[in-house]
Amino acid sequence: MKFTDDQIADIGEEIIKVLKTVYDPEIPVDIYELGLVYDVQISDDADVKIIMTLTTPNCPVAETLPQEVKDKVAEVENVKSVDLELTFEPSWNKEMMSEEAKFELGFL
Q1: Which of 10, 18, 69, 95 has the greatest number of C-beta atoms within 10 Å?
Q2: Using the 8-state DSSP alphabet, how is residue 58 labeled?
Q3: Which residues, by range, are in coiled-coil regions (predicted)?
Q4: Angle 5-19/64-74 helices, nearest 10 degrees?
């Protein structure tokens, strides 16, 4: 089944809401506001590809956090599949955080 652009946009909004429920265990800010999610691609068939990173390659949740993201996004209505790519290029830095996250952590 092919989705319309509006339906894809709605799915995208739901995915972002879900991403904002996933937290880095060491920082009290969600992964979306931290800037750990580099890209969310949604095909006409609602196959989702997420490109994300971690604050460091040695992050204590390197095994579990990507799986949590994948599981939660897979539960979004109409999402057919979720492909998650973990990348460390470019490396994450605090400049990638949203203004809101910087404010919460006292960087502003």
Answers
A1: 69
A2: T
A3: none
A4: 140
- Say if residues 36 and 30 touch (Cβ distance below 8 Å): no
pTM higher than 0.85 for the full model? yes
Structure tokens at 92: 């994450």
Is residue 51 within a helix (H) or strand (E), and if so which, with residue range?
A: strand 47-52
User: What are the b/e assignments for 79-106, b being 16+ CB within 10 Å?
Assistant: beebebeeeeeeebeeebbeeebbeeee
